[in-house]
Design goal:
The protein has ten helices and no strands. The protein is mainly alpha-helical and 203 residues long.
Length: 203
């Protein structure tokens, strides 16, 4: 799966507990009530997907681990902001992981960080589904096959948006195309990738 093993756990966030004791929604409610063990529940359940997503973006094990730890700390600190009516806890968590990993890449390249999205629907509207990205990150060979099957302009646009963290405007400037073209390339390219990956890793 092309992911190096995590060298450490996030035990400083909370004591490990039985991940079956709470579903995600109840874990989020417990965090709002100050239960630190609920963070460990989410980490036990979604830590591997979070790390896979962060590593796919950063291509650096240490930076990926730091991004995941920062994300879980943010989840703990901002648990009161989570609204189950706006999306699942897993989606919100992976949205934050993606944001933290992208910020790490942007800091490494000397570019400005971006504000954290309010909820999963804001991320999905501009980038795509973070859960889908997490699944793809754990299936690197299949994703490489899928992305190799789409035209170069669509592939480069997807790479800049998802794994470099550039905005539509930044991509448009770099590729010398209108922002609308960037959005179209992302949409069409992702549709082609989903069509190829769905029977392999998305079902």
């Amino acid at each position: 799966r092309d992911l190096p093993p995590r060298s450490r756990d996030l035990d400083d966030i909370g004591t490990r507990t039985n991940s079956e004791a709470l579903d995600d929604a109840r874990a989020m409610r417990a965090m709002r009530d100050g239960d630190r063990n609920a963070v460990a529940v989410l980490y036990d359940r979604h830590g591997s997907a979070a790390y896979g997503l962060a590593y796919r973006i950063t291509n650096d094990a240490t930076i990926a681990e730091d991004a995941v730890q920062d994300a879980f700390v943010s989840v703990w600190q901002q648990a009161a902001r989570f609204d189950p009516a706006r999306g699942k806890a897993r989606t919100w968590l992976l949205t934050i992981v993606h944001h933290k990993a992208i910020d790490a890449v942007r800091r490494r390249s000397g570019r400005a960080e971006r504000a954290l999205p309010e909820g999963p629907e804001e991320f999905v509207a501009t980038h795509g589904n973070p859960e889908e990205l997490a699944v793809w990150s754990m299936e690197a060979d299949a994703v490489r096959d899928a992305i190799a099957r789409i035209p170069d302009d669509q592939r480069r646009t997807i790479e800049l948006a998802y794994f470099v963290g550039m905005t539509h405007v930044e991509i448009a400037e770099q590729m010398n195309v209108p922002p609308g073209t960037v959005k179209s390339r992302l949409r069409i390219g992702l549709e082609k990738m989903r069509a190829y990956l769905r029977p392999k890793v998305l079902e």
